[in-house]
């Protein structure tokens, strides 16, 4: 990853990708709405006032702030000399890259950290691993709670919850992950050279394995994702769908995880399809499930991307200035 700023052409390409995905997302939901009754769908959307929309956005912001606080917690555990505002700037700015395949574009945070602290990518890479694993652990825990407390089970939710928790355990157990990487290192022959820095990064995960760090991270992530699940529950109620709280939370979490497992940028397509299908199984008609899905995705995923696009230029300029200051010391 170079320290140079992305070219204008590349920035326009990334912006075009965001716009194209948003267009496909809206076009797909609009097609479903036309097929099931456009007037009914518009009527459901019309039930929402601006105060309710602000409430949904506020709950999404709660999620991002708590998870941003968790990013700061991990940065401090790693020993990075960064302040809370600095870490929040990196965390929020990275949302601009959420729509890249597998969300690999969020690795831009590593570039900003290298510019501002001088730390190489292999030293800060564990932040990405432990942040993702903490999300998986928190979401798996919430999904497990929803399975235990909801009135109706969600088909396929248990394997997804187990898979997510398993991945989280693998990444947060440095010795286990290092052994796994070492095994791959020995088996891949001429590709071995790509695993040297990966093994170095996995050893750094020991810094995050303290119970106080892992426990605090699980609470911060759990509260954050529960806030968005609660937003979905309120939205369904406002649209006239009488869904129990833990059912709504389970549907939201499962759909988000399912969308992520598809590997599609931002989980677009997979998450929406899962959400609409699960709501239908709960007896929610399409004229309600389609607008509810559109609104919750706009106020969560696309709201995060919007925040990222706003913060990104500030994060980029701050990092460039910091890199210049480091070079001139």
Structural class: mainly alpha
Helix share, percent: over 70%
Biggest sheet features: none
Poorly predicted residue ranges? 1-6
Characteristic key phrases:
329 residues, mainly alpha, 14 helices, 0% strand, disordered N terminus, transmembrane, transmembrane helix, cell membrane, L-PG_synthase/AglD, membrane
List the helices and strands and how they pair.
Elements lengths: L7 H29 L1 H9 L3 H29 L5 H10 L14 H10 L3 H29 L7 H15 L2 H14 L8 H8 L7 H28 L6 H17 L8 H12 L4 H13 L2 H27 L2
Helix pairs in contact: 1-2, 1-13, 2-13, 3-4, 3-6, 3-10, 4-14, 5-14, 6-7, 6-9, 6-10, 6-11, 7-11, 8-9, 10-11, 10-13, 11-12, 12-13
Keywords: Cell membrane, Membrane, Transmembrane, Transmembrane helix
Main location: membrane
Pfam families: LPG_synthase_TM (PF03706)
Describe the structure.
Pfam families: LPG_synthase_TM (PF03706). It is a multi-pass membrane protein. Keywords: Cell membrane, Membrane, Transmembrane, Transmembrane helix. InterPro entries: L-PG_synthase/AglD (IPR022791). One of its GO terms (cellular component) is plasma membrane. The two termini are 23 Å apart. Helix 2 crosses helix 13 (286-298) and helix 12 runs antiparallel to helix 13. By secondary structure, the chain is mostly helical. The longest helix is centred in the N-terminal third of the chain and has 29 residues, at 8-36. It has a domain at 48-121 and 215-316. The model is unreliable at 1-6 (pLDDT under 50). It has helices spanning 8-36, 38-46, 50-78, 84-93, 108-117, 121-149, 157-171, 174-187, 196-203, 211-238, 245-261, 270-281, 286-298, 301-327. The protein is built from 14 helices and no strands.
């Amino acid at each position: 990853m170079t320290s140079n700023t992305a070219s204008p052409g590349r920035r326009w390409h990334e912006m075009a990708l965001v716009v194209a995905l948003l267009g496909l997302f809206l076009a797909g939901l609009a097609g479903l709405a036309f097929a099931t009754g456009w007037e009914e769908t518009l009527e459901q959307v019309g039930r929402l006032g601006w105060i309710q929309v602000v409430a949904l956005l506020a709950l999404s912001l709660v999620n991002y702030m708590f998870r941003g606080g968790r990013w700061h917690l991990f940065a401090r555990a790693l020993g990075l000399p960064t302040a809370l505002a600095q870490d929040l700037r990196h965390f929020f700015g990275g949302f601009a890259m959420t729509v890249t395949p597998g969300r690999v574009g969020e690795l831009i945070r590593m570039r900003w950290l290298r510019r501002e602290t001088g730390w190489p990518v292999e030293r800060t890479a564990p932040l990405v691993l432990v942040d993702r694993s903490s999300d998986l652990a928190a979401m798996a825990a919430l999904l497990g709670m929803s399975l235990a407390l909801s009135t109706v089970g969600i088909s396929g939710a248990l394997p997804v919850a187990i898979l997510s928790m398993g991945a989280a355990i693998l990444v947060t157990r440095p010795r286990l992950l290092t052994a796994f990487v070492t095994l791959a290192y020995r088996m891949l022959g001429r590709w071995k050279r790509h695993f040297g820095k990966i093994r170095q990064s996995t050893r750094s995960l020991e810094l995050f394995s303290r119970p106080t760090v892992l426990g605090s991270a699980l609470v911060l992530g759990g509260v954050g994702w529960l806030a968005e699940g609660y937003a979905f529950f309120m939205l369904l109620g406002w649209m006239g769908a009488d869904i129990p709280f833990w059912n709504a939370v389970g549907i939201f979490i499962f759909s988000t995880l399912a969308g992520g497992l598809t590997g599609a940028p931002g989980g677009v397509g997979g998450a929406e399809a899962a959400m609409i299908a699960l709501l239908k199984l709960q007896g929610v008609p399409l004229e309600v499930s389609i607008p509810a899905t559109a609104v919750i995705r706009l106020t969560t995923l696309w709201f995060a991307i919007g925040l990222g696009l706003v913060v990104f230029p500030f994060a980029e300029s701050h990092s460039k200035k910091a890199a210049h200051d480091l070079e001139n010391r």
